[in-house]
Amino acid sequence: MGKHESKVLVVFGTRPEAIKLFPVVAALRRTPGLEVRTCVTAQHRGLLDQVLGIAGLTPDIDLDLMEPGQSLDRLTARLLTGLGDVMDAERPDRVIVQGDTATAMVGALAAYYRKVPVSHVEAGLRSGDIYQPWPEEVNRRIVAPIADQHFAPTETAAEALRRENIDPAMIHVTGNTVIDALHATRARLADDPSLAAGLDPIAERFAGKRIILVTTHRRENFGGGMEAIASALGRIADRPDTAILFPVHPNPNVVSVMDAMLGDRPNIARIDPLDYPHFVRALAMCEIALTDSGGVQEEAPALGKPVLVMRETTERPEGVAAGTAKLIGTDSERIVEETSRLLDDGDAYSAMARAHNPFGDGHSSERIAAIVSAGFGSGD
Ligand code: UDP
């Protein structure tokens, strides 16, 4: 038979991209007429591999580009030559990138150099400040003029793209695929709780306590911000009714500060990064998420958990607008105050703890697969 299938190359490099793309890859693979190839750059090796195993995503191509202490210059240069070679060998009909990493930005650029059309999953997020988050804000802006399929998670994101004069016909509000990942993982956990049994000892140790789930890894918070966060966590954990569950990001800027400032304390579990089913269980166990992560701002509201966001700006304003997320920055005093308020004031807590899904209904990946397929003239 001749070549009837259109070849789609999905490119990604970090943990959040893998989490947000595994449902998309699955949906594309279920779509007739598409040949789906996956390429990981392994921009962040360890955390990426944790997802690949769990999501059953064995990449077709693995560039393994992680270097210790890599600069953005070297990373970008190696990504460009590496991904360019892959595209020359694979000759895809379309390249799909997600979000705002160097891999997404360079993947789009390498495709553009070959005049291969690009789809951008999670398009249109904007904080309005090119240095927050840095360099992600500019990474995702660079993808915009290249892509011809923009999968905006929300109407706010679509509007941001229209303001940049992106052709409205190219913008599709699909919801965020992280909600698909979350639903799929919760369903798997309901069938088989042993997938997250690694948290049993912590659940037992913290039984009866009010758990705060903490994640932090943003570059803007390295240095003084991290120290302020550590100091706030120490004070919050002084409350005998409260416990902190803290999967620590492996970046040395995070680990070294937390090691130095938090030591061994009975109310703080500083643990290795969790694979996705374990993290989803951790979110379900907690009362409040205290984070600077992008993805957690989307997942926590879906589970009805208030999110205190340790950042000055967010490119995900929907949670703040809905009242389920609050921007609190990294001032130590403020972090303690806002957390204590949620712990002590039932009304304040209930006002934020409404299950709310501004980010999607769990069917984003199917919509994306249908649009990709239709783009080849093979959809219905
Ligand atoms: N996550 C995880 N294990 C952890 C911490 C986070 O699986 O120990 C997941 C989390 O559920 C979310 C994603 O990783 O989907 C967020 O990644 P990260 O905070 O590294 O990046 P960001 O979302 O800020 O780009």
TrEMBL record:
Keyword entries, A-Z: Isomerase
Listed CDD domains: GTB_UDP-GlcNAc_2-Epimerase
SUPFAM superfamilies: UDP-Glycosyltransferase/glycogen phosphorylase (SSF53756)
Ranges of residues in domain UDP-N-acetylglucosamine 2-epimerase: 27-372
GO molecular function, a single term: UDP-N-acetylglucosamine 2-epimerase activity
Pfam family, one: Epimerase_2
Record-linked InterPro entries: UDP_GlcNAc_Epimerase_2_dom, WecB-like
EC number: 5.1.3.14
Catalytic activity: UDP-N-acetyl-alpha-D-glucosamine = UDP-N-acetyl-alpha-D-mannosamine
Keyword Isomerase among UniProt keywords: yes
Catalytic EC class: isomerase
Similarity comment: family membership: Belongs to the UDP-N-acetylglucosamine 2-epimerase family.
Name of the protein in its database record: UDP-N-acetylglucosamine 2-epimerase (non-hydrolyzing)
Organism whose genome encodes this protein: Sphingomonas oligophenolica
